[in-house]
Amino acid sequence: MYTIITGAGAGIGKATAYEYAKNGKNLLLISLEEKDLKEIKRDLEKKYNVKVLTLSIDLTSETAENKIVEFIDKNNIEINCLINNAGMGFIGEFSVSDLDKQLKLVDLNVLSVTKLTYAILPFLKKSKNAKLVFISSIAGLLPCGPYQNIYYATKSYVTSFAMGLRSELKQYGIKVTTIYPGLTRSKFLETAGGKNKTEKGAFPPEIAARDIFKATQKGKKRKLTALTFSQKMFFILLPIIPKSMVIKSTEKIQKSRLKKRV
Fold first, then answer.
1. 116: CB partners within 8 A, 6+ apart
2. H or E stretch including 28?
3. What is the bridge-based pairing of β-strands 131-135 and 175-181?
4. Of 251, 250, 201, 200, which Cα lies nearest the Cα of 227?
5. Residue range 107-135: average pLDDT?
6. Average confidence (pLDDT) over 224-238
């Protein structure tokens, strides 16, 4: 049995690959950067005595999901877990920012996740105790995100999509888990417009990876991770906080990040 992890070349995806390998899981790692994947494969197989397959592919290409299915069939492997982790961010005012970059974000965060999930579900249905994991974001729990409008919208989609699938897939014994990470150290910060991988307040991706593994194995509906105590309290109280207040606070945070980028 193999676990598929997308976006496995860095950040949460890479840390999750190590966490799963440490726990004896064979892996199919997918990322755009072939060099990163090969290095990770060598290290994991040496340290943990697991089987690791890698596939370098652009998940936004029209035939990506078909090529992944072909790869699975060619290698004659069984899949019992898909972790939809690949994603990107973007910060900027919608009306004056590059539209192609923003549409690329929709392609990766929404369309590729949808198409790959559809393509892999037949494999999961054949497996006992199969698991489907979506790496959303705390952004997916908020009303909207001024100056990160498209990103927040895509994560709201992932959140809704995952919740619906959890109900639909019960009949097949497939457990669906949604993960909501806070700020973690990764290349994602750079693509989203953060200063660098070590932006103040960012958590090590290994923290998120441990929570992903534990929550998924327990079949939990959702798990918030990589949050400070005050952030955890905020999300506990979120249902009773006026939306206007949440939006105003979010706008202030994103405007501050935008200024740092300039």
1. 6, 59, 64, 65, 68, 82, 84
2. strand 26-31
3. parallel
4. 201
5. 97
6. 95
Identify whether the C-beta of residue 134 lies closer than 8 Å to the C-beta of residue 177: yes
- Rounded-to-integer distance, Cα 228 and Cα 29, Å: 30
The tens digit of pLDDT for each residue in 151-180 reads: 999 999 999 999 999 999 999 999 999 999
Q: What angle do CA 124, 29, 137 make, to 5 degrees?
A: 80
| Residue 201 Cα to chain centre, angstroms | 19
Using DSSP's 3-state secondary structure scheme, residue 165 falls into helix
Q: Is the pLDDT of residue 199 over 70?
A: no
Instruction: For residues 157 and 109, give the distance between their C-alpha atoms in angstroms, rounded to a whole number.
Output: 9
Is 151 a known active-site residue?
Answer: yes
Distance CA 48, CA 46 (A): 6
- CA 81 from centre of chain: 14
Residue 22 has pLDDT above 60, yes or no: yes
Determine which one of 2, 147, 151, 157 is catalytic. 151
Count the Cβ atoms, other than its own, within 10 Å of residue 59.
22
DSSP letter assigned to residue 183: -
pLDDT in tens, 242-256: 999 999 999 998 988
- The whole-model pTM stands at 0.94
Residue 88, CB-side half-sphere exposure with 13 Å CA sphere: 19
In a 13 Å sphere around the CA of 38, the CA atoms on its Cβ side amount to 4
CA 71 to centroid of chain Cα atoms: 22
Q: What is the mean pLDDT of residues 199-208?
A: 88
CATH topology of domain 2-261: Rossmann fold (3.40.50)
The dihedrals phi and psi of 125, each to the nearest 5 degrees, come to -65, -25
